[in-house]
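Hey, can you fold this one?
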Amino acid sequence: MDLKLNLDEYENIIVYKSLTDEKYLSGIIDYINPEYFKDKNIKVIFGIIKAFYLKTSSVPTVTELKTYINSDDIKETFRTVLRNFTNIDKNLNEEELINNTERYIKERAIYKTMLDVAEDVSSGKIDTGFILDKFEKSCNINLKSDIGLDLFNNFDTVINDLNSEHPVIPSTWKWLDNKIDGGFLQNGRALYIFAGETNVGKSIFLGNIASNIAKQGKTVLIITLEMSELIYAKRLSSNITKIPVRDLKVESATLKQQIDEICKNSPDCRILIKEFPPSTITPHQIQSFIKNLISRGIKLDAIVLDYINLVKSTLGNNSYERVKYATEQVRALSYVFSCPFITATQLNRTGYNTNNPGLETIGESIGLAATADVIVSIFQDDEDKELGVVKMAMMKNRFGMNHGVTTMKMDYATLTVTEDDSLSNQGDQSSITKTLAMLSNKS
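Sure. Predicted structure:
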């Protein structure tokens, strides 16, 4: 039986505990606002309590509180609130207290959000992403947490984890898989980013990753914020069948035959492509779309997002903050859906035409670099473009070494990126380029 909580009466308990229990107040301070209280007296007093705590990180004593009570009206307000404390049972069950407080905050936050949304709609201001974001925040309030991992007293947990399998999805590029401990974490909780300047081939790399994963009998979702679904489909079709993009139209019969053969031999192989206009969809809307797919019985093994800078964030006052928050929210989705997210980002101008660019060249927000688990740079010089090669280097890596460079072959006709053992050398890249040039001249 679900007992109904009297929210109006519960306001007295919240303000009482806030004045007498610093641990309680610190746990709710970030989630509760004075506007949530219907009792106007409690609203005033809790506003003073919150302002004091945010300034001093402590609960005000009665003496300290009196310094803020500087009028007869507020004095009477304070006396009224104190009188209501006489009816409170001081021996409160802690678990029930936290559960009821969480319930109170959620319901009042949702109610406040509904009023705000109604006001926005009546004034003609309708931003569905912002509205969804506010409701998501209200519903996801959680006051309960455990102490975490007690390293020395629970070291068996560490041993068990060391001896456990952590399944991965290989990129099928040996150099990259060796760097990231075998591949992309199958159970998610990780965000992988390819960073490069404009037109270096970021979308080509993402498309190759998607097809490489799908060929392993996996289901991949590509969310494209830059190209249309059909353009992406043509590029992937060329990559998968090795029919040049420009020949797809005249080779449509062969194309269809090869795709049918792939579906026959690998029935679990699947790539879904969903297009959204750039800078219109928020992480919460992406979450809603993925939930819709799952409700249709579709299990996603990996999600490719092209690309992170074009995700809209309702948080932040500038591009630095918006990209930072969007990256944090997208990474959180890899926890929610237990699969890896793979995306791309731009380099800033200092990273253009730079060999092995560093994290400081990440465009718009270094907050993105702080959030990502793995960042791989892709770059070329003029010689590389002529020779049809692209270099990859580790910029950041939480799963292994965060250094090293390799060279990949790029077939621009079919938009295919492949490894060549003669190129995959972490030594002097200039000598590799010279060797390629020499081989090219001989041919």
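The mean pLDDT is 86. Let me know if you want another pass with a different chain boundary.
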